[in-house]
TrEMBL record, chain A:
It is found in: Cell membrane. InterPro entries: SLAC/SLAH, SLAC1/Mae1/Ssu1/TehA, Voltage-dep_anion_channel_sf. Gene3D superfamilies: Voltage-dependent anion channel (1.50.10.150). This is S-type anion channel SLAH4. The chain crosses the membrane at residues 76-101, 108-127, 139-157, 169-190, 202-221, 233-255, 261-279, 291-307, 319-343. Signal peptide: none annotated. Keywords: Cell membrane, Ion transport, Membrane, Transmembrane, Transmembrane helix, Transport. It comes from Camelina sativa (False flax). It is a multi-pass membrane protein. Pfam families: SLAC1. Belongs to the SLAC1 S-type anion channel family. It comes from the Eukaryota. Its main location: membrane. The keyword Calcium does not apply.
UniProtKB/TrEMBL annotation, chain B:
Residues 33-127, 141-170, 195-219 are annotated as: Disordered. Belongs to the SLAC1 S-type anion channel family. It is found in: Cell membrane. PANTHER family: S-TYPE ANION CHANNEL SLAH3. The gene is LOC104706700. Keywords: Cell membrane, Ion transport, Membrane, Transmembrane, Transmembrane helix, Transport. The keyword Signal does not apply. It comes from the Eukaryota. It is a multi-pass membrane protein. The keyword Nuclease does not apply. This is S-type anion channel SLAH3-like. The chain crosses the membrane at residues 256-277, 297-316, 337-357, 363-381, 423-442, 454-473, 485-507, 513-531, 543-567.
Length: 366, 636
């Protein structure tokens, strides 16, 4: 919301988050301030956009390869769009790290925000895997893979270690649906490694992801009381519940080479959770009131599920599977387009809104 | 004073109905209002629209049909005239369906009426002399539990005026009238005016309106905390001492009301026996026993007959006593038994004698699994997202029943030759079994339903892994590592429970014990399958021993059941678990405090009281909190 004109001057170097909320001024030399306000309202959750774009690009790549009647122009367009979005977001975020490092630190400490620090890496992995011109076996791919894997691994060590050692950050307190993003990061990395042909590395990453997925899955399903409260605006993040098994299924498919029983089971689990979420509109109703960047969280889990269904249909060549693939892919594309249009329509709100995507309060017993 | 007390009483959700009752009664004899033919249709028309505006509870048509059937059934023969009473009506935060007051004096209460409906008519007699009410209150406070309980409000979207009117005629004669009406709260269509119930004098109990609000509203389920507060025991069937129930405990209730869903456990037990005897007769390791196939046939036909009988009776219960079924559905343990009929059907399909049919058609599998998927989506979704029914709160060993169905379905599908469907159910079952297993093993402190000492329900732990191992073997075609791992887990759990057999003594028998026999049978069948692969004397001995144990247990259970049914005649005791009241009996001190307040009530107090009611709260101490707030505001 626009704040009345005689607003306080914001000291840019004041790291207090409360000051973020009052960044709007209408001074004449507003440009650097506009940039600063953009930077300050940017947070890792915005990488959901690039996540969705990159996963859509991957979906189109796979679909175009298997169904040649689809226009491959869409795929190239998507990929370049995803590339530009990702690069620009990364630059912006890098600027933020340079100029507003304290805000980044705050994000890192926040129990929901820290998970989205994986998002840039996931997007890069997806970009790499969906790239039209890079062959998985050449050196460039491998170097890029390692460049992107390093942040994932470091974050893993930090985050997963905290789960059972640091008392303030125990999993039972910190677990929230966004924690599955870390799992997805590991699984996507596993898929990338498997595409390169590095089976052991892929298996290592896969098992890392799956073990922690098991723990998170059980903890989240239990819904322990005394856990943190998850803001309603972030309800779209519940879609991550089925994104994780779908990604696991994809990774296993690439590791094994075929869509075998385990991959099928993970795919079915993901499908079941998706249907059960869709059957509960009340869960998501509250969050659909106002547009915010969390709506992008609807898009990429569906894309992962669609990817999975494409692989499944390729393996099991019967009508039910093909129909399923068709339905899920269309839903995914439609939602992607829908969210993109909504973003374009609400672009002002997107860039200027304050990061209220997570409540200022942390876990209850912090 | 009358006016004031009127208002005061009306603060209670119950009160309005009580008042109504009182007024209708009083007016006849006590007040100077004469009976006059009041246009009862007038009231009816007022009420019914408001009733119809009530959203159906979870889409239960029975409720709505009952509402509809109510239309036009109201004859308030005995109800005294309210129409000419000029008492102001007050909106009560009670079941909005029932009363909505349009009193100018207490405007705050009007917001409380969530469901519209101008039942100003109903309010009218609210303004009847309360003194009688208060005396009633005191009187009932002395422990006229019977009347209190019987007229407690359950089916709130029905009108109880007439009921209250009738029941209040006399305190004493009212009791025998209640006999007919006491069960009406549970009846789906209770004839004419017996619309559920009514607010009895018990309604004057100091209940917090805000507590009653969500509870009386039949559109909402009884919160799961209520079940935990009121019941105890490993199967949540024993009433806690300070709780009271809404149906009379001294009489034997109608048979259907006493018929719990856990009787389907019998179907589970018997049909799994049929499968076991079929496997014994046809499998390799036990061929040396020369078991004839007619045992399987006999058992199978018995199971079919049993399932048909039990299902018919339960269907009757659904039709006639829908409220009781609803309460069973919201009971945290009984909900799992809703899976039992479908699991029994799956068992029937698995145990069908080879002489009848060898190849079952594929559509049968889809047909059998469809209700499963629907029920599962609901229950598992609740685990994941439901606030009060989340898994850490409601996890109990009986939840295994909801998970085992997946594996049984997978087993059946795989033996019918299907590929994808069984894998689907196996995956879903495995994922949720994992979560359930971890939660139960953790024995979280927030989880109250795990029995502190052992109980046959623990045998359900054995069910899922044993069936999972068989299902995996059928899916992959051979009893490989995955199946063996599951099988060994099942056997370990079995033995760790069997050696603690001493701890199972002294537990009250109940029909749900039949459900706990099928894990033993399942383990026996899994052993036979295992012995088919790993052939040795040891495994064969294990087969025989486990089958013998299973048969003996079932036989013993059969004998016990027969004894309870015919000798002791208490196979179906009064099902207290479904008759718990919506509100806990208030503590004594708050009881008196409220009473004092009642006496010194003023309109400001009412306003204050209404102001402080909080319909979102689900604490059991709401009343006290309210009182405290009111007193604070008074003193302020």
């Amino acid at each position: 919301m626009e704040i009345p004109s005689q607003e306080i001057h914001i000291k840019i170097d004041n790291p207090r988050s409360s000051s973020n909320k009052r960044k709007k001024t209408n001074l004449a030399d507003a440009e650097p301030i506009v940039l600063m306000s953009v930077l300050s309202s940017l947070h890792a959750g915005y990488f959901r956009i690039s996540l969705s774009l990159c996963s859509q690009a991957l979906l189109w790549k796979i679909m175009v390869h298997s169904h040649t009647e689809l226009p491959s122009m869409v795929y190239y367009l998507l990929w370049y769009l995803a590339l530009t979005t990702q690069v620009s977001l990364c630059f912006l975020y890098a600027f933020k790290c340079v100029f507003l490092f304290d805000l980044v630190k705050e994000e890192f400490v926040h129990y929901i925000g820290v998970n989205y620090l994986y998002a840039p890496s996931i997007s890069f992995f997806l970009l790499l895997q969906s790239a039209p011109m890079i062959d998985p076996h050449n050196v460039l791919y491998q170097t890029l893979f390692w460049i992107f894997a390093v942040p994932v691994l470091t974050l893993d060590t930090k985050l997963y270690g905290q789960w059972f050692t640091t008392e303030k950050r125990f999993l039972s307190i910190m677990a929230n649906p966004a924690s599955q993003v870390s799992v997805i990061a590991n699984l996507v990395a596993a898929r990338g490694a498997a595409e390169m042909g590095w089976k052991e590395c892929a298996l290592c990453l896969f098992s890392l992801g799956m073990v922690h997925y098991l723990v998170i899955f059980v903890t989240l399903y239990q819904r322990l009381p005394g856990g943190n409260n998850f803001p309603t605006t972030l309800r779209p993040v519940f879609f991550l519940f089925f994104a994780a098994p779908a990604t696991a299924s994809l990774a296993w498919n690439t590791i094994c080479g075929t869509f075998d029983t385990i991959a099928k089971m993970l795919f079915f689990l993901s499908l079941f959770i998706f249907v059960s979420l869709v059957c509960r509109p009340n869960l998501l109703k509250k969050s659909i009131k106002r547009f915010n960047v969390a709506w992008w969280a609807y898009s990429f889990p569906l894309t992962f599920l669609a990817l999975d269904s494409v692989q499944y249909a390729q393996e099991v060549n019967d009508h039910v599977a093909s129909i399923l693939m068709f339905i899920i892919s269309s839903i995914s594309v439609l939602i992607f387009l829908g969210v993109m249009l909504l973003t374009a329509a609400n672009s002002k709100r997107l860039l200027r809104r304050d990061p209220v995507l997570w409540s200022a309060t942390g876990p209850k017993d912090k | 004073m009358d006016q004031k007390t009127n208002y005061a009483i009306q603060v209670e959700e119950e009160l309005p109905s009580l008042l109504r009752k009182a007024t209708t009664e009083e007016m006849v004899g006590f007040d100077n209002y004469k009976d006059s033919a009041q246009p009862s249709p007038h009231i009816i028309s007022r009420f019914h629209p408001s009733h119809n505006s009530t959203p159906t509870l979870n889409g239960q048509e029975a409720s709505s049909t009952s509402i509809d059937s109510m239309e036009g059934h109201h004859n308030y023969n005995e109800t005294p005239p309210w129409t000419h009473q000029r008492k102001p009506s007050i909106s009560m935060p009670t079941s909005p369906n029932i009363l909505m007051i349009s009193d100018p004096t207490t405007s705050s209460s009007s917001e409380n009426n969530t469901k519209g409906g101008s039942t100003g008519k109903s309010v009218k007699f609210l303004s009847q002399p309360i003194t009688k009410v208060s005396s009633l209150y005191i009187e009932t406070g002395k422990g006229d539990d019977d009347r209190r309980r019987s007229n407690d409000n359950h089916h709130h979207h029905q009108h109880q005026q007439h009921q209250s009117g009738r029941q209040h005629q006399d305190h004493i004669p009212a009791t025998h009238k209640l006999k007919d009406n006491r069960y009406n709260s549970f009846k789906t269509w209770s004839g004419k005016l017996e619309r559920q119930f009514t607010r009895k004098p018990a309604s004057i109990e100091p209940e917090t309106p805000k507590r009653n609000n969500p509870n009386i509203n039949t559109n909402e389920a009884m919160p799961v905390d209520r079940y935990y507060d009121a019941l105890e025991g490993p199967e949540l069937e024993t009433l806690r001492p300070q709780e009271e129930i809404v149906l009379p405990n001294d009489k034997k209730w109608p048979f259907l009301l006493r018929y719990p869903i856990s009787t389907f456990g019998m179907c589970l037990g018997v049909s799994s026996q049929a499968i076991m005897w079929k496997t014994l007769a046809t499998a390799e390791p036990t061929k040396f026993l020369h078991i004839p196939l007619w045992i399987n046939q006999g058992l199978w036909f018995i199971s079919v007959a049993l399932i048909l009988t039990i299902a018919t009776i339960y269907l009757l219960k659904i039709i006639l006593y829908f409220e009781a079924v609803r309460r069973e559905y919201y009971h945290p343990i009984r909900i799992n038994f809703f899976f039992a009929p479908f699991i029994s059907l799956l068992f029937l399909a698995l145990g069908v004698p080879p002489s009848i049919i060898t190849d079952l058609p594929h559509y049968l599998w889809y047909l059998l699994m469809f209700p499963f998927i629907c029920l599962e989506l609901k229950i598992y979704g609740q685990w994941m997202s439901g606030g009060q029914r989340r898994l850490s709160r409601v996890a109990n060993p009986t939840n295994h029943l909801s998970v085992v169905g997946n594996f049984v379905g997978a087993l059946l599908g795989a033996s019918m030759g299907l590929r994808e469907g069984p894998i689907f159910f196996y995956a879903v079952g495995m994922a949720h079994y994992l979560v359930l297993f971890v939660t139960l093993y953790q024995r979280l402190p927030t989880n109250e339903t795990l029995p502190k000492d052992l109980h046959p329900v623990f045998f359900l732990f054995v069910a899922a892994p044993s069936v999972a191992s068989m299902a995996w073997a059928k899916i992959t075609g051979s009893f490989d590592y995955g199946s063996k791992v599951c099988y060994f887990i099942a056997i370990f759990l079995y033995f760790s429970l069997a050696v603690r057999i001493n701890f199972f003594r002294g537990i009250k028998f109940s029909l749900s014990w039949w459900a706990y026999t099928f894990p033993m049978t399942g383990a026996a069948i899994a052993t036979i399958r295992y012995a088919t692969i790993v052939r040795s004397t040891m495994t064969q001995i294990m087969c025989v021993v486990l089958c013998a144990i299973a048969t003996l247990v079932v036989f013993a259970l059969l004998v016990t059941t027969i004894i309870h049914a015919f000798v002791l005649r208490e196979l179906f005791p009064n099902d207290l678990a479904i008759a718990i009241s919506n509100r806990p009996r208030p503590k004594q001190n708050s009881h008196h405090r409220w009473l004092d307040q009642l006496r010194n009530v003023s309109s400001e107090n009412i306003e204050n009281y209404l102001k402080f009611t909080d319909s979102d709260s689900s604490h059991s101490n709401d009343l006290e909190a309210c009182n405290v707030k009111i007193q604070e505001s008074d003193s302020a």
